[in-house]
Amino acid sequence: MGRKSEAGLVKFKDYYETLGVPRTANEKEIKSSYRKLARQFHPDANKGNKQSEEKFKEITEAYEVLKDAEKRKRYDALGANYKAGSDFRPPPDFSNFGFDFSGFGGAGAPFSDFFEMLFGQAGGMGGAQTGGFRTAGGGPQAAARRRPSDQEAEIELSVEELAHGSTRTLQISGPGMKPKTLEVKIPAGVRAGSRVRVPGEKGGAPGQGQGDIYLRVKVKPHPYFTIDGDNLICELNITPAQAVVGGEVLVNTIDGPVRIRVPESSQSGKMLRMREKGLPKLKSPQRGDQLVKLRIALPAKITDEERQLYEQLAKIEQERNEV
Question: Model pTM?
């Protein structure tokens, strides 16, 4: 780990060596090596093994830097001037707070002094991500609004969680405080970029008191819905017969399947509106709409009976066009 020496220096860490890849490794090679090592040293697979736990922290930290183009560029620039094992001095206001991100979709660990100095909030140089939770320094305006002991992080939510709310488990620790487990309630109606405040739950540096945690919302891509403000948009495949004569079809919504009627003579690309089937608004009974885009899908296979009917239809259309 990137421990400090008595003189306040921090040990340089060779992240390429930690992951067992050359400095010329591409993104795919780095990811492959990380996954292999993560499976080998994951704490769940090595219960009570402190060495494996430390190794897992090291490879996670290395991956957090090398998978990110900007962080890797910054690290490579430093690495050109320092040999592995060399020392350098962190800024005067350096501090390091440990977070366990296990409740946010990944097994996390506190980053080393070396990492925090280069990329952590104390160094004012961006953030680090583990699982679905990211510490972030924020811009000048955000920094001005927060106290020195506040912490901003990123949480990734599904579309369903935006609609119905969610409860997540957060484990925190810091200098002079015991590790604490919190149940964080995410209200229905938040959007991408929303900030959820968890008041007074982060231990600050000495003399700073307890700060707040601000969870900035990021939305996971959804296989069915796309978001447009308060509205949800989806596509619905219909058959040529349904497009011509209309009929009832089932449409998935965030509240479950609902039957709607397709008007006759519907063209591909036609939009149907389902009132108040979209996302709820924060602290409001109002909801957006769900927009259903029709898409005429040809059958991959047809029966002999269907072929005969299509042939009859084609003949009728041909005769009509010849008139």
Answer: 0.53
